[in-house]
Structures are given as C-alpha cells and as structure tokens.
Amino acid sequence: MSARLEEPLTKALGARTAGAFAKLGLETVGDLLEHYPRRYEAPGRLTDLATLVPGEHVTVLARVQQATVRRMRSRDGALLEVRVTDGVGSLDLTFFARKAGVLGFHERRLVPGRTALFTGTVGEYRGRRQLSHPDYELLGADGEGADEAIEAASRPIPIYPAGASVATWQIHRAVRTVLDTLAEDEVPDPVPHDVLAERGLVPRFRALHDLHVPTTDAEWRRGRVRVRFEEAFVLQTALAQRRTRAERRAAAARPPRPGPGVLAAFDASLPFTLTGGQREVGATIAADLARDRPMRRLLQGEVGSGKTVVALRAMLQVVDAGGQAALLAPTEVLAAQHARSLAALLGPLAEGGMLGGTEHATRVALLTGSLGAAARKAALLDAASGAAGIVVGTHALLGDQVQFADLGLVVVDEQHRFGVEQRDALRAKGSSEPHLLVMTATPIPRTVAMTVFGDLETSALTEVPAGRAARVTHVVPASNDVWVRRTWARVREEVDAGRRAYVVAPRIHPDDPGAADGPAGPTAPAGRPGTDETDDVLDFLDEPTEGGAPPLRAVLEVAEELRAAPELAGVGIGVLHGQLPPADKDRAMAAFADGSVPVLVATTVVEVGVDVPQATVMVVLDAERFGISQLHQLRGRVGRGTDPGLCLLVSDAPPGSPGRARLDALAATTDGFELAEVDLELRREGDVLGAAQSGRSSSLRFLRVVQDAAVIEDARSAAVRLVADDPELVGAPALAAAIAERLDAEREEFLERA
Ligand code: ADP
Ligand code: MG
C-alpha cells in the first residue's frame, strides 16, 4: 500500500476527528477510503418515513414542515419542536435547552421548506415517531452559492455505515478532504491494467471517486462493479497461487498396481456394481494418486451416494503401492463407526497378518482418545510399523504422537470441520506430502466452492445407488397434540415392524439456559481439531426467540416423556449426547443398532455419518432451530436401507417465518444442491462466509457469493491466467500486497469457519 494510504487519520484529519473514526475501526487514510457508502439517497426523493422502526439508528432525508419553540410548563427550559415530512407522513424532531435562546440556532436553520439529512435513533412519544436531538445536515446549506447548492442537490447522497460517534455526513466530509488531496499514483491498483481494460472496469482511483463522490447513480454503480471484481480477483489470485504452489510440491506417486492386489480383491468381492459416478470419480482419483504431485480433491455427494466406497478404493490403491491411508472423522463416535464399516466392507481383506487372512490383505486400526492404554499402544504400533494400511481416527491423528510408516493418503470426512491450517499441517506428516481427499455430504454451491474451497479440485457423486427406498419429510406443528401423538404412534409402528427411530432435540439438559453446549452460529468454527466437541454444536441461526416462547426441548427431558408416553409403552428408549463418556456413547449406539433399544433420543451427534440401515424415522424437535444443511444431514440418517425413510420436523415456527421457510424447503425437495442454494438465499448477508464478510476488516464488502457467481467465475479465469504467467506476481506488486494485506489472517479464519 502506498505511503499516503497508510497515513494515520490523526495526521490527515487531526486528533479529535480521528478519535471518532477510530471508534468505527478506521485508523488510516486507506481504511477511510475503503469505508464505502452503504447506500445512496436520491436527492429529490425523500425517505419514506412510514418505514422507520423504533430503536433503529437511521438517517433520513426529509423536508421541514414547521418549527416552533415553546417553554416547558413542568420544568425549566424550552423545547424546539420540528415536524419534518416526506410529503406523505411526518416525523417529529425535538431539541431541549435550558434557555430558549440556545434553540434559536437550530430554529434559524430548520426553517420550513428546507431539506436536510437527519440522523438519530427512532423513539416514540405519545404514539408518534420522533428523533430527539438529531444530528442534521442541511442540503444546499448556508455558505454555498446557488449554483453549488443546485449541483450538490442533484447528486446522489452517500449514506455511510455510521455510528453514534460519527454521522454519515461527517464521514463524507472527511472522505472528501482526503480525496481532494489524493493523487492517482498514490492509489496502487491491485487489478492489472489489461485485466481492467478487457472488462471496461475503471481504475481504483476512479472507483474511489465514483463511490464516495458520485455525480450520478451510474457512477457509484460503476464503482461498485469495479470493487466487486477486485474483491473476487484478489481472492481468486490467492487461491490460484495456492493451487500452483501445491502443484510444485512433491508427493509420492501411488499408481494402481497392475497385477493382483488388495484393491483388485476388494473389487472382486463387492456385492454390488459401482455406479457410473463412482467409477468415473474413482478413475479421476486413481489418476491423481498416480502423479508425483499431491492430490487435493474435494468429493461431494449426498449421504448414501457411496462416497465411502470411493474413498476406500483410493485407500486400497495406496496400500497396494506400499503406503498407508488415514481416515479422519469429525468425532470419535464417527471414527469408530468408520472403522467398523470399513472392516465390514473389507471382510477377510482386513485381516492382514492374521491367521485366516487372505493373501492380499491389510489391517484397519482405530486410534481414538477413548482407547484403553493397551489398545492404544497396539494401534500406535500398527500405524508406525505399517501393519495397518488404514488408520482411522479424529484430527488427533495429525498430532505428533502418531507415527506412520509411510502415510500416502489422508481422507477427511466432512470438510467443514477441516480448515486450511489442518490441510497445511498434513505437509508436516511423512517424508513427502500425502495426497488429500476431502469428503462432504453437505452440497456446496459452485460459487462457494470456488470461493471458500478454491484451493481444492472438486468432484461430485450425483446419482444415488439404485434400489434405495424413498424418503419423505413432513412438518408437524408442535402445538397440535393430535399430530404430535400421531408422530409417536408412527414411531411405534416402525419399531413394531422391526425398525428404529431417532428423536433429535437441540439441548441436553432441560435446565441448561439457551441452547446446548455453547451455541454456535451456522458458520462458527465447530470445535477444535483434536477434540471431540463437535458433537453437540448446533447449527441454528440466531434468530431471537419471542419473549415467553417455550424453552427448547432437551434430550434428557424428552427421553423421560417418551418413556411415559402411552404410544411407546414397552419400547426401549436410549439417550446419546456429547457429554456422555465415550463408552456410554458406544453402548447407546450398539443397543440402537442391534435393536434392543430401538428409539434413540439424541443431540445432533447423529448428524453426520452414523449408519444404521434399519433406522427409518427421524423426528426433529424444535426443528426451526437447526440450519437447512444440518436438517438435511439428519434426515439422511434414515431410509438408508431398503425401507423408506420418514423425517418429521416438529416445530412451532409460524408460517412465513424464516425458520418455517427452511422447513418448508426441506419438505419440498430432497435435492441437496437445490437446498444449499435456498440456504444461501435465506441466510442473512454476512452469514455465508462468517464474520469475516460482514466485519470491517473483510476483504469482501460488495461481493456476494450467490448473486455474484458470474463475477467470481470471471475473476477466477483472469486470476488463473495471470498466475500461470507470473506465479509470484513479480509484475503485479500491488496485487501481491493486496493479497498479503487483506487475506492473511482473515482468509484462514473464514476458510475455517465455512
Ligand atoms: P456415503 O458415504 O456417501 O454416505 P456410503 O459409501 O456409506 O455413502 O454408501 C451408503 C450405502 O450404500 C452403503 O451401505 C454402501 O455399502 C452402499 N453402496 C455404496 N455404493 C453402492 C452401489 N454402487 N450399489 C449399491 N449399494 C452401494
Ligand atoms: Mg459415509
């Protein structure tokens, strides 16, 4: 960044003004210039006063209708009452003072007919909206000549994100002061000239003027288009560099073994044929693994689309090539389950080195914190000696204690709990970088994948293996007793037919305040790697609950109720949540799986990966408290066998509320990609990429991942071309600086949060 943009505001504006700006987080000239207006008022169009909401801090453009000073009867002092109008409705402004004379200043300025911007917090007095002691700025004010006034009055009025300490016009004035003395060469442009020229975009210097002092609406729009592109371009360049750097690093090639091996034996033993998608993605991965560059691939696919089989085949290819594979799950429960299901899929092929094991075989080791000392030692030994071709665990596997003989592939289940830092930590494991395959059942819209996971190649499994039964979702009104009883009766019917039901609630203990263990927004980081705390982290959006709303349902309480419910008399009801000791969790899962306790009341611990084919019903209580993707994951837990699945979303969210809209969307479609798009649309701005997008320090102010798909695509292709020619950006120092400055800390953060 240029020296001028780094100049502290204390120097540019004086200590006092700078102090007020510091409260908005603006420290330098560059900060101030990147504090873009949020919107623009049309000078001729007054603000619709009917839309004001009490308690909101607002800036309105209105015309003075009348102004009167009167003495207060009850106490000392005087009151200036000003009524302003938008031509239809009106708003009261009040100014108090001890002496009537003090009010004369405002009275002389706020004469009927004058138009001004007023800012303050909307209050209510005797049923009327009012602003008390608002700040204001007259349009075409004193001191300006008539021409200037008319010109100024015809320009769009920028409205800045302001605060109590600084009004929008004070920001505007400060920005103008700075812009007036700014020279074009003091504003480096991260977007190279030819990239701008190809797209007809204005240089950065011009864009700053367009945004802060537009003379027409077309100008600020032009400025926004330019800044939006810049945001996408800087990010995409950084991601292209990441990919290029990964491409330059070495990995051990693990080509498929030509002759017989464990993969060939596995393929021969499969009781089904692979789907077209599994074969295709499998071939891509096989080719990736055969290269001496690290694979970095994201595999998306609906729950049940057969990702695990694809991943296992990749692992076996590596084993055949003499290496090992590690499978990382987000929780210990899931790790244990993965280990079981891999061993089951492999059959005798998982009995390498054991009596009765077949010729081409390997071993699956489970390594989790809850293992006993002896089992842990054995597993560590199997990993270190290479006897275990496949090691399953949580992120703790990447810790220092675990040694591998020759780690060739890391498979990560559920990417959203695996950030860039963890991806990078892999490089430290083993002599060369292992190949990486990240699996997710959460469909990610393409633009988000490009933005957030832009350093990974992506593949998708789109077809679900044939023979899978249907899955139906209904919304059940929680306050309707008949429906709720019918819900439990349905559970009963399934249990009587030999099947199982999950009942999910948002909290564990009825007396926990609020939501479960540490509520988290939809994009909050869910647990640290190496811990098992992801179990009960909720994904609900933090919509405030109405005062007096019933408390959220709790697992322990619901379990008690169901044990007493006549519909479920005699049915075993188990409990599963993240606060249980690991042995209890395992026991609860086992009893559920073998049918001895066919109803499991749980937190979202059952969200990912838990696989019990006989489970056919998923009842979610307080369903509106969960996010779309989470509910989609939850219902993916049922109907995995040949029997159809039923998902009942119990909720009191009123029709039309955002919570209800999510549930309706779920009931309407089973297409995960469609839901992911709906999810993005329903989420408020800033939720998509987490705080990083809405925060002041964000590199993304105008770019919106959903609406701006085309911009992101375009920026990506420009970035790829540039990085191919000049990987270290020697010829684009301003771009390199922008990447370092904007993306360093922050990108890591939001990548992890996504
Ligand atoms: P995912 O990991 O994507 O949720 P899985 O790999 O666990 O899906 O597969 C779900 C179920 O479908 C498993 O029981 C698996 O054995 C089975 N399955 C996988 N691929 C096929 C296939 N091509 N045909 C039939 N069943 C399959
Ligand atoms: Mg799976």
Written description of the protein model:
There is one protein chain. The protein is an alpha/beta fold. The protein is 38% helix and 17% strand. The chain is built from 26 helices and 21 strands. The chain has a seven-stranded parallel beta sheet with strand order 11-12-10-13-14-9-15, with helices on both faces. A six-stranded parallel beta sheet has the order 16-21-20-17-19-18, sandwiched between helices. Strands 2-3-4-6-5 form a five-stranded mixed beta barrel. α15 links the parallel β11 (364-367) and β12 (390-393). The longest helix is centred in the N-terminal third of the chain and has 32 residues, at 217-248. It is globular and about 100 Å long. Mean pLDDT is 81; it is low at 514-548, 684-698 and 745-754. Adenosine-5'-diphosphate is lined by residues 272, 274-275, 278, 301, 303-309, 441, 465.
Name the bound molecules: adenosine-5'-diphosphate, magnesium ion
Q: Based on helices, strands and strand pairing, what is the structural class?
A: alpha/beta
- CATH superfamily label of the largest domain: P-loop containing nucleotide triphosphate hydrolases
Mean pLDDT: 81
Report the top-level CATH class of the largest domain. Answer: Alpha Beta
Q: Looking at the chains present, what oligomeric state does this protein adopt?
A: single chain
Question: What Rg, in angstroms, do the CA atoms define?
Answer: 31 Å
Distance between the termini: 29 Å
DSSP strand tally: 21
Number of helices: 26
